[in-house]
Amino acid sequence: MFYFLNNVVPPPSYDGMRAYNLGSRCYHDVLRLQETIFRKKIDRQMRYIRGDKSARLIPNVVLLVEHSSPVYTIGRRDTSNGIKAGCAAEVVKTRRGGGVTFHGPGQVTMYPIVNVQVLWKQCTASDKPRSPIEWFSSVLEQAMINVAGEYNIPAHRGRVGVWSDSWGDVAPRKMGFVGLQLGNWVSMHGAGLNVSNNCFTSTISLCARCRTKQRRL
Protein backbone atom coordinates (compact mmCIF):
# COMPACT_ATOMS: atom_id res chain seq x y z
CA MET A 1 0.00 0.00 0.00
CA PHE A 2 3.01 2.32 0.28
CA TYR A 3 3.95 2.10 -3.42
CA PHE A 4 3.58 5.86 -3.87
CA LEU A 5 6.28 6.62 -1.29
CA ASN A 6 8.89 5.39 -3.77
CA ASN A 7 7.97 8.13 -6.26
CA VAL A 8 7.50 11.08 -3.94
CA VAL A 9 10.02 13.07 -1.92
CA PRO A 10 8.22 15.23 0.69
CA PRO A 11 9.82 18.65 1.26
CA PRO A 12 11.94 19.03 4.43
CA SER A 13 9.40 21.35 6.07
CA TYR A 14 6.91 18.48 6.19
CA ASP A 15 9.30 16.24 8.12
CA GLY A 16 8.59 13.18 5.99
CA MET A 17 5.63 10.81 6.03
CA ARG A 18 4.34 8.99 9.12
CA ALA A 19 2.45 5.69 8.80
CA TYR A 20 0.46 4.12 11.65
CA ASN A 21 -1.09 0.64 11.76
CA LEU A 22 -4.15 1.01 13.99
CA GLY A 23 -5.14 -2.66 13.89
CA SER A 24 -8.86 -3.39 14.24
CA ARG A 25 -10.85 -0.26 15.16
CA CYS A 26 -14.40 1.09 15.22
CA TYR A 27 -15.15 3.31 12.20
CA HIS A 28 -16.22 6.29 14.34
CA ASP A 29 -13.01 6.22 16.42
CA VAL A 30 -10.90 6.37 13.27
CA LEU A 31 -13.12 9.04 11.70
CA ARG A 32 -12.65 11.27 14.77
CA LEU A 33 -8.89 10.73 14.62
CA GLN A 34 -8.83 11.59 10.91
CA GLU A 35 -10.87 14.74 11.45
CA THR A 36 -8.61 15.90 14.30
CA ILE A 37 -5.42 15.46 12.27
CA PHE A 38 -7.09 16.94 9.16
CA ARG A 39 -8.18 20.13 10.97
CA LYS A 40 -4.88 20.61 12.78
CA LYS A 41 -2.87 20.04 9.61
CA ILE A 42 -4.88 22.65 7.70
CA ASP A 43 -4.70 25.12 10.61
CA ARG A 44 -0.90 24.85 10.92
CA GLN A 45 -0.51 25.03 7.14
CA MET A 46 -2.57 28.22 6.89
CA ARG A 47 -0.75 29.85 9.80
CA TYR A 48 2.59 29.04 8.18
CA ILE A 49 1.47 30.46 4.81
CA ARG A 50 0.32 33.67 6.54
CA GLY A 51 3.80 34.18 7.96
CA ASP A 52 3.68 32.49 11.37
CA LYS A 53 7.00 30.65 11.11
CA SER A 54 6.53 29.27 14.64
CA ALA A 55 3.66 27.12 13.36
CA ARG A 56 5.39 23.77 12.87
CA LEU A 57 3.82 21.95 9.93
CA ILE A 58 2.22 18.60 10.77
CA PRO A 59 3.78 15.74 8.78
CA ASN A 60 1.82 13.83 6.19
CA VAL A 61 0.12 10.93 7.96
CA VAL A 62 -1.16 7.58 6.69
CA LEU A 63 -3.51 5.51 8.87
CA LEU A 64 -3.96 1.80 8.14
CA VAL A 65 -6.92 0.07 9.76
CA GLU A 66 -9.30 -2.88 9.61
CA HIS A 67 -12.74 -1.73 10.72
CA SER A 68 -14.02 -3.99 13.48
CA SER A 69 -17.70 -4.02 12.51
CA PRO A 70 -19.61 -3.65 9.22
CA VAL A 71 -20.49 -0.12 8.16
CA TYR A 72 -21.67 1.57 4.97
CA THR A 73 -20.41 5.06 4.25
CA ILE A 74 -22.25 7.38 1.87
CA GLY A 75 -20.30 9.94 -0.14
CA ARG A 76 -21.40 13.18 -1.81
CA ARG A 77 -22.87 11.17 -4.67
CA ASP A 78 -25.67 9.81 -2.48
CA THR A 79 -26.67 6.36 -3.71
CA SER A 80 -28.22 5.25 -0.42
CA ASN A 81 -31.27 3.96 -2.26
CA GLY A 82 -29.06 0.92 -2.91
CA ILE A 83 -29.15 0.04 0.80
CA LYS A 84 -32.02 -2.22 1.79
CA ALA A 85 -34.45 -1.20 4.52
CA GLY A 86 -33.71 -2.86 7.87
CA CYS A 87 -29.99 -3.24 7.17
CA ALA A 88 -28.16 -4.39 10.31
CA ALA A 89 -24.93 -2.59 9.40
CA GLU A 90 -24.48 1.03 10.44
CA VAL A 91 -24.82 3.68 7.73
CA VAL A 92 -22.69 6.85 7.99
CA LYS A 93 -22.95 9.99 5.83
CA THR A 94 -19.55 11.46 4.91
CA ARG A 95 -18.11 14.35 2.86
CA ARG A 96 -15.90 12.21 0.65
CA GLY A 97 -16.40 11.74 -3.06
CA GLY A 98 -18.24 8.75 -4.46
CA GLY A 99 -21.35 6.83 -3.47
CA VAL A 100 -22.01 3.98 -1.04
CA THR A 101 -19.00 1.96 0.15
CA PHE A 102 -18.78 -1.03 2.48
CA HIS A 103 -16.16 -1.29 5.25
CA GLY A 104 -15.68 -4.19 7.62
CA PRO A 105 -13.52 -7.02 8.95
CA GLY A 106 -11.10 -8.45 6.40
CA GLN A 107 -10.75 -5.19 4.47
CA VAL A 108 -7.66 -2.97 4.71
CA THR A 109 -8.52 0.72 4.64
CA MET A 110 -5.82 3.35 4.14
CA TYR A 111 -6.50 6.94 5.20
CA PRO A 112 -3.84 9.35 3.87
CA ILE A 113 -4.00 12.76 5.55
CA VAL A 114 -1.52 14.49 3.27
CA ASN A 115 -0.98 17.65 1.26
CA VAL A 116 -1.85 16.29 -2.18
CA GLN A 117 -0.62 19.35 -4.08
CA VAL A 118 2.80 19.25 -2.43
CA LEU A 119 3.20 15.54 -3.18
CA TRP A 120 2.05 16.08 -6.78
CA LYS A 121 4.66 18.82 -7.26
CA GLN A 122 7.37 16.58 -5.82
CA CYS A 123 6.48 13.63 -8.08
CA THR A 124 9.11 13.32 -10.82
CA ALA A 125 7.11 11.11 -13.21
CA SER A 126 6.98 12.74 -16.65
CA ASP A 127 3.53 11.34 -17.44
CA LYS A 128 1.76 12.36 -14.24
CA PRO A 129 -1.78 13.79 -14.64
CA ARG A 130 -2.07 17.58 -14.63
CA SER A 131 -4.64 17.47 -11.84
CA PRO A 132 -3.19 16.74 -8.36
CA ILE A 133 -6.45 15.07 -7.32
CA GLU A 134 -6.57 12.86 -10.40
CA TRP A 135 -2.90 12.01 -9.87
CA PHE A 136 -3.40 11.07 -6.22
CA SER A 137 -6.45 8.91 -6.95
CA SER A 138 -4.44 7.14 -9.65
CA VAL A 139 -1.54 6.61 -7.24
CA LEU A 140 -3.83 5.00 -4.66
CA GLU A 141 -5.37 2.74 -7.29
CA GLN A 142 -1.94 1.73 -8.56
CA ALA A 143 -0.87 0.89 -5.01
CA MET A 144 -3.76 -1.57 -4.74
CA ILE A 145 -3.03 -3.04 -8.17
CA ASN A 146 0.60 -3.60 -7.11
CA VAL A 147 -0.46 -5.26 -3.86
CA ALA A 148 -2.80 -7.60 -5.75
CA GLY A 149 0.07 -8.41 -8.11
CA GLU A 150 2.18 -9.51 -5.14
CA TYR A 151 -0.44 -12.25 -4.62
CA ASN A 152 -0.48 -13.17 -8.33
CA ILE A 153 -3.87 -11.56 -8.90
CA PRO A 154 -3.82 -9.46 -12.08
CA ALA A 155 -5.85 -6.29 -11.57
CA HIS A 156 -6.72 -3.11 -13.43
CA ARG A 157 -8.59 0.17 -13.12
CA GLY A 158 -12.24 -0.38 -13.96
CA ARG A 159 -15.42 1.66 -14.18
CA VAL A 160 -14.96 2.74 -10.58
CA GLY A 161 -12.06 1.53 -8.48
CA VAL A 162 -9.75 -1.46 -8.90
CA TRP A 163 -10.92 -4.71 -10.48
CA SER A 164 -9.45 -8.18 -10.84
CA ASP A 165 -8.88 -9.34 -14.40
CA SER A 166 -11.21 -11.98 -15.84
CA TRP A 167 -9.99 -15.54 -15.29
CA GLY A 168 -11.49 -18.41 -17.24
CA ASP A 169 -15.25 -18.05 -17.04
CA VAL A 170 -15.01 -15.72 -14.00
CA ALA A 171 -15.79 -12.12 -14.93
CA PRO A 172 -13.78 -9.18 -13.51
CA ARG A 173 -14.73 -8.30 -9.93
CA LYS A 174 -14.20 -5.19 -7.86
CA MET A 175 -11.41 -5.41 -5.28
CA GLY A 176 -10.67 -1.86 -4.19
CA PHE A 177 -12.03 1.68 -4.14
CA VAL A 178 -10.93 5.28 -3.65
CA GLY A 179 -12.98 8.06 -2.07
CA LEU A 180 -11.36 11.32 -0.96
CA GLN A 181 -12.27 14.56 0.77
CA LEU A 182 -9.98 17.58 0.33
CA GLY A 183 -9.66 20.90 2.11
CA ASN A 184 -6.84 23.36 1.29
CA TRP A 185 -5.25 20.46 -0.65
CA VAL A 186 -5.18 18.27 2.48
CA SER A 187 -6.86 14.88 2.05
CA MET A 188 -8.80 12.57 4.32
CA HIS A 189 -10.79 9.36 3.80
CA GLY A 190 -8.92 7.27 1.24
CA ALA A 191 -8.78 3.75 -0.21
CA GLY A 192 -9.98 0.29 0.76
CA LEU A 193 -8.83 -3.14 -0.43
CA ASN A 194 -10.70 -6.40 0.14
CA VAL A 195 -8.21 -8.86 1.65
CA SER A 196 -10.01 -11.70 3.43
CA ASN A 197 -13.57 -10.52 3.92
CA ASN A 198 -16.34 -12.80 2.66
CA CYS A 199 -17.99 -10.51 0.15
CA PHE A 200 -20.86 -12.84 -0.62
CA THR A 201 -22.44 -13.40 2.80
CA SER A 202 -24.59 -11.87 5.52
CA THR A 203 -24.01 -8.13 5.76
CA ILE A 204 -23.38 -7.25 2.12
CA SER A 205 -26.00 -9.54 0.62
CA LEU A 206 -28.64 -8.61 3.21
CA CYS A 207 -27.99 -4.88 3.20
CA ALA A 208 -27.09 -3.84 -0.33
CA ARG A 209 -28.66 -4.22 -3.72
CA CYS A 210 -25.21 -4.89 -5.18
CA ARG A 211 -24.92 -4.86 -8.93
CA THR A 212 -21.14 -4.97 -8.62
CA LYS A 213 -19.44 -8.32 -8.02
CA GLN A 214 -16.82 -8.13 -5.26
CA ARG A 215 -13.58 -10.05 -4.87
CA ARG A 216 -11.05 -10.55 -2.10
CA LEU A 217 -7.31 -11.29 -2.29
UniProtKB/TrEMBL annotation:
<dbReference type="InterPro" id="IPR045864">
    <property type="entry name" value="aa-tRNA-synth_II/BPL/LPL"/>
</dbReference>
<comment type="pathway">
    <text>Protein modification; protein lipoylation via endogenous pathway; protein N(6)-(lipoyl)lysine from octanoyl-[acyl-carrier-protein]: step 1/2.</text>
</comment>
<dbReference type="GO" id="GO:0016874">
    <property type="term" value="F:ligase activity"/>
</dbReference>
<keyword id="KW-0436">Ligase</keyword>
<feature type="site" description="Lowers pKa of active site Cys">
    <location>
        <position position="174"/>
    </location>
</feature>
<keyword id="KW-0012">Acyltransferase</keyword>
<dbReference type="GO" id="GO:0033819">
    <property type="term" value="F:lipoyl(octanoyl) transferase activity"/>
</dbReference>
<dbReference type="InterPro" id="IPR000544">
    <property type="entry name" value="Octanoyltransferase"/>
</dbReference>
<dbReference type="GO" id="GO:0009249">
    <property type="term" value="P:protein lipoylation"/>
</dbReference>
<dbReference type="InterPro" id="IPR020605">
    <property type="entry name" value="Octanoyltransferase_CS"/>
</dbReference>
<keyword id="KW-0808">Transferase</keyword>
<comment type="similarity">
    <text>Belongs to the LipB family.</text>
</comment>
<feature type="domain" description="BPL/LPL catalytic">
    <location>
        <begin position="56"/>
        <end position="217"/>
    </location>
</feature>
<protein>
    <recommendedName>
        <fullName>lipoyl(octanoyl) transferase</fullName>
        <ecNumber>2.3.1.181</ecNumber>
    </recommendedName>
</protein>
<dbReference type="InterPro" id="IPR004143">
    <property type="entry name" value="BPL_LPL_catalytic"/>
</dbReference>
<dbReference type="Pfam" id="PF21948">
    <property type="entry name" value="LplA-B_cat"/>
</dbReference>
